Amino acid sequence: MTQLLHQRQQQAGKVAHFCSMKISQDVRDIAAQQGVDEQTAFSKGMEQKAVEFVKRGSQLYSKA
Question: What is the spatial distance between Cα 23 and Cα 27, in angstroms, rounded to a whole number?
């Protein structure tokens, strides 16, 4: 059982690392498309998502 748990933890770590790499690449791509640096693209994206979050009622979870 301990070995299975360890394998699952390793798999989760790999998935999290992949997702992080994908997000970083997406930010770089968007920055290039917009002709801005990565930090500016990230800041703009976070601002847009904050506005969407408030418009949707500031709820972390929504009913499907």
Answer: 6
